[in-house]
Amino acid sequence: MFDLNLAIALLLGSFIVLLLIRVPISFSLIFSSLITATYLKIPLMAVVQQMVQGVRSFSLLAIPFFIIAGEMMSQGGISRRVVLFASVMVGRVRGGLAQVNCLDSMLFGGISGSAVADVSSIGSIIIPMMKEKGYDDDFTVALTVTSACQGVIIPPSHNMIIYSLAAGGVSVGRLFLGGFIPGILLGVSLMILSYYYAVKRNYPKERKYSLREALLISKDAFLGLFTAVLIMGGVISGIFTATESAAVAVVYTFFITFFVYKEIPFRAMKGILYNSLKTLAMVMSLIAAASAFGWIMAYLRIPALATQALLSITDNKIILLLMVNVLLLLLGMIMDMAPLILITTPILYPVFVGSLGMSPIHFGIMLILNLAIGLTTPPVGSALFVGCAIGHIRMEKVTKALLPMWGAMVAVLMLITFVPEITMFIPDLIMPQN
Hints:
Radius of gyration: 22 Å
Shape: globular
Number of strands: 0
Structural class: mainly alpha
Helix content: over 70%
Strand content: under 5%
Oligomer: single chain
Distance between the termini: 46 Å
């Protein structure tokens, strides 16, 4: 026999200690699982088997395809064309480049599905342009970083696939559709805030394009933007699964990058595959480690105990939703997105979906948006780190400029949390459940 409280303390305590001494998250999850399994006298091979089982899912094959497609798009000239297309659409508004920054993140995020990829590719173009036009450094980087978060909400998003896995097989197609309105709402809120600052600080408008220029730019950008249409159209129509649509996207992006745009030589594919493999290794190792960690949590009945603990505090749905939002925002400040999805979903899902009757799609979008905000917050915000590096600016300076943008993002989060129709309208309209 074992002491349940001691086993739980050992699992969670060792994980927290390992994080505090800066052990990588994957190793922290594995070591804490092995330590607890040893105490519980569980054969260590069983933990290894759970790790293997965690990555033996057909739906996870979509992740490497999305990563490769995103890497090709980042290097192949699509990001530059998206910036030009966004400039045609909104550049003439006061503070045009700020509006372009928000819109191009909305468009590119819908192709790459990654906030960090968005900051890296779009940011490297738009940040120098904005600084050259007289935009404040801190505002420029803060806007780039926060607008990039649309990439994990607007489909396709590999984080939605990770959530689907952690939640036990939630429909990826409905998740994709559920992200549309919340992602657009997030972008619009930042565009409104950008316009306010543009008027206040007298940021410039962009030049007006002739009709011929606008048509040429739109035509040039269409082929890249069509990637998102191809993925979503295939999934929604039922022609492709999410995995098959990701594979088709890789083939299409390969053709557009190397045979249509031709901005990089074919030998660049070696670097693209190398970068994709590094990213994939991190993602899959996290999934494997979190699978073992989640299995130990289930063995110790931590999700059930967490449900009882939360419902013992209050059974008021509004208060519980506020509590979990605060918790996720705090966790997002100290851990990255993918491991948090894998760790928190098995704990919180039974409370909000099982006990309170929340839609798994609504809960998933709320969870992902919460953690997306964490990508912009110190000390661990990966998008913030990349943005500061590109903008050559200290994080402390950017943090002050981020405060009103965090306010806008949290306002959208509250809307999505308490008005489920915002998330559920499109999934229920296009892919209703039987």
